[in-house]
From TrEMBL:
Known EC number: 3.6.4.-
Name of this chain's protein: DEAD/DEAH box helicase
Keywords: ATP-binding, Helicase, Hydrolase, Nucleotide-binding
All residue ranges annotated as the Helicase C-terminal domain in the record: 224-379
PANTHER family: ATP-DEPENDENT HELICASE IRC3-RELATED (PTHR47396:SF1), TYPE I RESTRICTION ENZYME ECOKI R PROTEIN (PTHR47396)
Helicase ATP-binding domain: residues covered: 19-148
GO MF, one example: helicase activity
Organism from which the protein derives: Falsiroseomonas tokyonensis
Region ranges (Disordered): 342-372
């Protein structure tokens, strides 16, 4: 069997995947946070399948992901080939392939596979991914991702136009932080969010070209350098920019302030990208200013800060970016997030529970109907999950007295359906036990609860469901 040693939650994830197949799924999707060790999990599954004589194909879309998968398989003693430019073909049962290369070679013939593993499966919705999947209609699929939805919020399930037919939930970020497998995050954001009033939405997110101009004002550039100097001077940090030009400008600003900073992007030479990423681990680089480069696949535990200068409406992109710094390292007590983009206030802290679905996100309610996913301290500007006091400086938020409007009215019979079902004369514990998530708003209305009560109840239910899954 495989030489890979699994952590308890990884072993549990493997068993849940097996249960999904036994229940009749052909293409389950494993969801686990960045840093949970998804590569280790699917390498273990691939090694087990190969030991039974099955042919396994591991698909990835970037060189870093291909290298990671190959390294984990090698460490486990699993012989494998690599289908990518510069590699000599091998006839091993396990193959790690660049989806771009494999899609081009399919026309010259298809070697059958029994299991296809799709790394970063939120990309597997169109183009070359569809070409490869269609070439192997009889193979089982296994997708792995930290963010199981597309940029526009659409799901990855069959009904949403994707290819996955079951969702397997791995551990939560909060569970991994509690177990010491990820580091906690401390978040700081300026008092004023960037002005994005003139930035239009394109393809489900802010238009990159307009966003670059909006995020390059002298004040924003200066604030980014000053906050780094104040909170994490000299520590290895990744800065996320909306454009290559913006990344280069930020690197110049940090160098001018005396820090070792470089800019790198998806269009940089491979040698330059590798040197920049490696420099974060050796100390040669203190601030890596990136654009479309390392939202996925980067494994540099030494990174102790992320600097957000790319506002995004994509929960997936935000989670991937912050996740780059959550891996633990010797001497590292926490990740510092310097959020100049307003993303943490928009999407919530990284440890906040997420409700994922193969069908994707439902249409958002009006802002007035939602409780913000995060709160910002007016004293030290830390950002955190809503609570009465700031966890960083201890500032206690004043409790706003509830204003009651007095109006004239007539007495009437108490026949309101909401009062009959959810009124205060009924024990709340029994009401909640019998009520669905959809009933929570009605309960709050019938009992006169504040708007935030519904959000907190839904959060509590989600945590209870996650705990039950992991029990």
């Amino acid at each position: 069997m495989s030489a890979i040693q699994l952590r308890p939650y990884q072993d549990d994830a493997v068993e849940r995947v097996r249960q999904a197949y036994r229940a009749g799924a052909r293409a389950p999707l494993l969801v686990a946070p960045t840093g949970a060790g998804k590569t280790v999990i699917f390498s273990y599954i691939a090694a087990g399948a190969a030991a039974r004589g099955k042919r396994v194909l591991i698909l990835a879309h970037r060189k870093e992901l291909i290298r990671q998968a190959s390294d984990k398989l090698t460490a486990a003693g699993v012989s494998h080939g690599i289908i990518a430019p510069g590699f000599t073909p091998k006839r091993d049962l396990v193959q790690v392939a660049s989806v771009q290369t494999l899609a081009r070679r399919i026309a010259s013939g298809v070697v059958p596979f029994d299991l296809i593993v799709v790394d970063e499966a939120h990309h597997a919705v169109a183009g070359q991914w569809v070409t490869v999947a269609a070439a192997y209609p009889n193979a089982l699929l296994l997708g792995v991702t930290a963010t199981p939805e597309r940029l526009d919020g659409r799901g990855l399930g069959v009904e949403a136009g994707g290819c996955f037919d079951a969702m397997v939930m791995g551990p939560t970020v909060a569970h991994l932080v509690a177990g010491g497998f990820l580091t906690p995050a401390k978040i700081f954001a300026p008092a004023e969010a960037p002005d994005l009033s003139g930035v239009r939405t394109k393809g489900g997110d802010y238009d990159a070209s307009a966003l670059s101009d909006a995020m390059a004002t002298p004040k924003l550039v200066g604030d980014a350098v000053e906050h780094y100097r104040r909170h994490v001077p000299g520590q290895p940090a990744i800065l996320f920019s909306p454009s290559v030009a913006h990344a280069e400008r930020m690197a110049e600003a940090f160098r001018a302030a005396g820090f070792r900073a470089v800019a790198a992007s998806g269009s940089s030479l491979a040698s330059e990208r590798d040197a920049a990423i490696k420099g974060l681990g050796t100390g040669a680089v203190q601030v890596l200013c990136s654009c479309d480069l390392i939202s996925e696949g980067l494994d540099v535990p030494a990174v102790s800060a992320v600097i957000l200068l790319r506002p995004t409406k994509s929960l997936g992109l935000y989670v991937q970016q912050v996740g780059r710094g959550l891996r633990p390292a010797p001497g590292k007590t926490h990740l510092t997030v310097l959020d100049h983009a307003g993303n943490t206030l928009r999407h919530g802290p990284p440890e906040m529970p997420r409700e994922w679905s193969l069908q994707g996100r439902t249409k958002k309610k009006k802002a007035s109907d939602e409780t913000p996913p995060a709160r910002q301290c007016t004293n030290c500007f830390a950002v955190f999950t809503p609570r009465p006091a700031c966890p960083e400086c201890g500032f206690e938020f004043p409790v706003k007295a509830r204003e009651i409007e007095q109006v004239a009215g007539d007495l009437s019979d108490v026949t309101d359906e909401l009062t009959n079902r959810f009124g205060k004369h009924l024990p709340l514990s029994k009401v909640l036990a019998a009520a669905s998530d959809a009933d929570l708003t009605a309960i709050a209305k019938a009992r006169g609860y504040k708007r935030g009560w519904v959000w907190h109840q839904r959060q509590q239910r989600q945590q209870q469901r996650q705990a039950a899954l992991q029990a």
